[in-house]
Amino acid sequence: MFPGIPVTTNLPVNVSTGTNAGHLFYVNYTPVNSFAIEYEDSAKFMGPDVKKSPQEFLQKTENLSIPEGPAKIVFEQESTFDGYPAREFEYAVGGKGNYSVRYKMILAGGRFYVLYVIFLTANPHPADRAIFFNSLSLN
């Protein structure tokens, strides 16, 4: 449930990583609030290392998602979503930007979902974020 009509874009196919398809849907609700979901299909998400420890894969992906510099992790949690491994985390960027990003990552077989919301740290709109994150349905 996006707070508006999402823009859709296809991400380029990356042969070197085995990514077959990527899709991004996003809404810039206001100049300082954005909602997005991205997913990729790839055989690498079914690989033995990922299957052996999906939460380790999600933790490594979290580490790669956080920008260097003033970003600070303010929340992180392992979880599941419809029985699939999931992880949620949030980081805040101080300084002039003073924004935060909340992520929810889900590893569902050969598909990797990333939902995220970008917002002003001082104005997080947790109810809107919860509605957006909880509206995802895996069919």
- Give the % helix: 10-25%
What gross morphology would you assign?
globular
What is the number of E strands? 7
Structural class: alpha+beta
The CATH architecture designation is: 3-Layer(aba) Sandwich
Average pLDDT works out at 82
CATH topology: Protein Transport Mog1p, Chain A
Rg over CA atoms, rounded to whole Å, is: 15 Å
Instruction: Give the SSE string.
Output: EEEHHEEEEH
What share of residues are in beta strands? over 45%
CATH class: Alpha Beta
Describe the structure.
The chain has 139 residues and is an alpha+beta fold. The protein has one domain: Protein Transport Mog1p, Chain A. It is 19% helix and 49% strand. The protein has helices spanning 48-52, 54-65, 126-134; strands spanning 7-11, 19-30, 33-42, 71-81, 84-93, 99-108, 111-120. Strands 1-2-3-7-6-5-4 form a 7-stranded antiparallel beta sheet, with helices on both faces. A hairpin with a 5-residue loop joins strand 5 and strand 6. The protein is globular, with a radius of gyration of 15 Å. 18% of the residues are buried.
Short description:
With 139 residues, the chain is an alpha+beta fold. The chain has helices at residues 48-52, 54-65, 126-134, and strands at 7-11, 19-30, 33-42, 71-81, 84-93, 99-108, 111-120.
How do the helices and strands line up, and which of them pair or pack?
Layout: E1 7-11, E2 19-30, E3 33-42, H1 48-52, H2 54-65, E4 71-81, E5 84-93, E6 99-108, E7 111-120, H3 126-134
Antiparallel strand pairs: 1-2, 2-3, 3-7, 4-5, 5-6, 6-7
